[in-house]
């Protein structure tokens, strides 16, 4: 994934790509399989490999954002990823709700700006 120049655009591109993957037959099946698989050593190794690969890209996104001054150096890229990917995985695996087209943008805006309204105006993102 190329550096778009802004943290929001990088996160949005990643979240949009993830949503597209999770709604594909292969992505949907893999996500549900990983969630329901046991914890035997081979399955754990495969799950670790999958998530290690997933963590690499957001690590780069966070590094770019730190370099641009958009995030503090102490930012934990793995935590950023967990906040970004949890809602779509929750919908696919647990509630089986569809991923609305605007969900990636809503997640990214909530991640970057929080849930509270700006001090001088309305809420920053639509969260429902």
Automatic annotation (TrEMBL):
Species, as recorded: Amycolatopsis rubida
Keywords, in A-Z order: Transcription, Transcription regulation
UniProt domain Tetracyclin repressor-like C-terminal: residue ranges: 1-110
InterPro entries registered for this protein in UniProt: Tet_transcr_reg_TetR-rel_C_sf, TetR_C
Keyword match DNA-binding: no
Name of the molecule in the record: Tetracyclin repressor-like C-terminal domain-containing protein
A Pfam family recorded for this sequence: TetR_C_11
């Amino acid at each position: 994934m190329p550096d778009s120049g802004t943290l929001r655009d990088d996160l949005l591109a990643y979240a949009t790509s993830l949503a597209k993957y999770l709604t594909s037959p292969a992505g949907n099946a893999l996500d549900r399989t990983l969630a329901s698989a046991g914890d035997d050593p081979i399955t754990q190794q495969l799950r670790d490999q999958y998530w290690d690969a997933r963590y690499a890209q957001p690590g780069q996104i966070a590094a770019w954002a730190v370099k641009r001054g958009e995030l503090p150096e102490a930012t934990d890229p793995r935590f950023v990823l967990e906040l970004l990917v949890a809602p779509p995985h929750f919908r696919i695996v647990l509630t089986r709700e569809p991923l609305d087209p605007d969900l990636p943008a809503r997640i990214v805006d909530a991640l970057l700006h929080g849930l509270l309204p700006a001090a001088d105006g309305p809420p920053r993102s639509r969260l429902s």
